[in-house]
Amino acid sequence: MKRRVYPVSSPDEASKSVLVDAAVMGAASAPFSVPAPPAAPAIPRVLLAEESLPYRRVIREALMAFRLCEVDDAPSGERAFELALQREYSLFLFSLPLPDMAGDMLDRLLSKAYPMVHKGVHASPPVVFLIQPGDAMKFQELQRDVRVRGSMPLPPKLDVLLSVTSTLLPERQGGLAFPPSLSPPFTPSTNVS
């Protein structure tokens, strides 16, 4: 059987013409298949739920600068719940006080719903709680859950964030680093000429 050649202007049209040729030629010829490129490892994704926009920005930018991850943030528990059902995450960062529900309640809801929505996932990701000073006693009770990996006090502190996420997210290679300390301490000159 004679093979037809169609002029194509894009790779998408080329794949359509191969499918047309395979259909025209019938089962007598082997179908044309292009080997798929090896899949790159997925970048871990973090879901952050915190009411304060400045806190969300600081945490998101710090994680993306020092850890190899992508961060989705939500101002409320409801929005965080919707995002968690749409995408797969490697880590949850939830503030205990959220405007519409407590962060531990959001975590309990997601621990039931998350594995049902995402096929092949048997448990929801680990969680780190963002706590106010008055929430320390409540956090002590939450630590009994195996998925609770720690807490971070608010306002956010970079060193605490990086130490809590050190075992949960890969470090960004060739990215930003802490600046070297100045030795001797810098003192401004008071000599005016």
Question: How do the strands and helices of this protein lay out in sequence?
Answer:
Layout (H helix, E strand, L loop, with lengths): L10 H15 L19 E5 L3 H14 L3 E5 L2 H10 L4 E5 L7 H15 L9 E5 L4 H7 L5 E6 L4 H8 L28
Parallel strand pairs: 1-2, 1-3, 3-4, 4-5
Helix pairs in contact: 3-4
Give structural notes.
With 193 residues, the protein is α/β, with parallel strands linked by helices. 36% of the residues lie in helices and 13% in strands. The chain has helices spanning 11-25, 53-66, 77-86, 103-117, 136-142, 158-165, and strands spanning 45-49, 70-74, 91-95, 127-131, 148-153. Strands 2-1-3-4-5 form a 5-stranded parallel sheet, sandwiched between helices. Helix 3 (77-86) packs parallel to helix 4 (103-117). The radius of gyration is 25 Å and the shape is globular. The N and C termini lie far apart (94 Å). Mean pLDDT is 81; it is low at 10-30 and 179-186.
Question: How is this structure best summarized?
Answer:
This protein is of the alpha/beta class. The protein has helices spanning 11-25, 53-66, 77-86, 103-117, 136-142, 158-165, and strands at residues 45-49, 70-74, 91-95, 127-131, 148-153.
Give structural attributes.
193 residues; 6 helices; alpha/beta
Chain-averaged pLDDT: 81
H and E string: HEHEHEHEHEH
Low-confidence region ranges = 10-30, 179-186
Instruction: Please identify the structural class as seen in this structure.
Output: alpha/beta
Question: How far from one another are the termini?
Answer: 94 Å
Give the strand order, joined by hyphens, for the main sheet.
2-1-3-4-5
Strands, total number: 5
Rough shape? globular
Strand content: 5-15%
